[in-house]
Amino acid sequence: MPYSSFASMPCTLSRPAALLGERWTLLLLRQIFLGTRRFEDFQATMDISRSVLTDRLNVLLQENVLKRVPYHEDGRTRHEYRLTEKGRDLYPVLMALRTWGERWMAPEEEESFQLHHRDCGGGVRAKVECTECAAELTARDVQVTARA
Amino acid sequence: MPYSSFASMPCTLSRPAALLGERWTLLLLRQIFLGTRRFEDFQATMDISRSVLTDRLNVLLQENVLKRVPYHEDGRTRHEYRLTEKGRDLYPVLMALRTWGERWMAPEEEESFQLHHRDCGGGVRAKVECTECAAELTARDVQVTARA
DNA sequence: TCCCTTGCGTTCGTTTTTCGAACTCAGCTA
DNA sequence: TAGCTGAGTTCGAAAAACGAACGCAAGGGA
């Protein structure tokens, strides 16, 4: 079972994990959520090799996480990479990573950017909750059952 | 800037993203949250090569996400891999992946396991909320500012 | 005691990925 | 026509992953 076969497992956790678990993919998504949209800018800010960048962008296009959108600059038509709705919906994944990073990987130093709720200025955090009673859940509060 | 240098970037999103963005690491964590604890069981259920499994387990031990715990079986002392508090706190990351997978990568088929809140039987989902007003947030509701 | 089994890795030669520098190409611009 | 720029593509070298075989310590049984 090669790594790639997880992409077709009947598990709604395995497939996203296999997709985002490829090298560079999470870092690429971070950059996109921070506003980067062009090939050259990804390449410059992340210092990823151009061939791997091409590959990762293509995978995300194929998965419909990103879309290519034409735009004009200096009278020329070019394309930029933007999140689809499916892509934007990955926000909780990135925020969960950051919430964890804030708690467990921030020794003294501060974060390189800050996030605030536009409406009230509050902070941002990811959490897991019950769809019925809205209680916040940890792994211990959740029962796992194999599907029938 | 090699991939590994993201592990020391002053960004609380980059570092977790680089750590969990290595191949197999997210899938390994999924398996751990599902209850797998021993080398042989990881190897058998994921079909990962033994050398890479050794490496990934060691990285997670070093990062203090996992710990080795001795246990007895057949009168012999062995060790198993278990989550630390830091590791357990990754639960929202995995649940965010799953919530996304349920919405965007579950065509007709069902998930391979189900999750329920032990207390009330409700479903489980990840979300992002404001630490002040508790509103649920999307990327559009959040303002990013570079640190001073 | 000697041999077998088990769990947990380690080694090593082969195949994939990644790297990085150079190259290509299309569409302006001078 | 020549040059520039953004967006890739190509290709040889280096790193990572693969997988089959090997190592090893701790029992158990003969």
From TrEMBL, chains A, B:
Q: What Gene3D superfamilies does the record point to?
A: Winged helix-like DNA-binding domain superfamily/Winged helix DNA-binding domain (1.10.10.10)
Q: Name one GO molecular function term.
A: DNA binding
- Would you say which domain of life the source belongs to? Bacteria
- Taking every annotated instance into account, which residue ranges of this chain make up the domain HTH hxlR-type? 11-109
Transcription recorded as keyword: yes
Has the keyword Transferase been applied to this entry?
A: no
Q: Which Pfam families match?
A: HxlR
InterPro entries with a match to the protein in the record: HTH_HxlR, WH-like_DNA-bd_sf, WH_DNA-bd_sf
Q: Which UniProt keywords apply?
A: DNA-binding, Transcription, Transcription regulation
What name does UniProt use for this protein? Answer: Transcriptional regulator, HxlR family
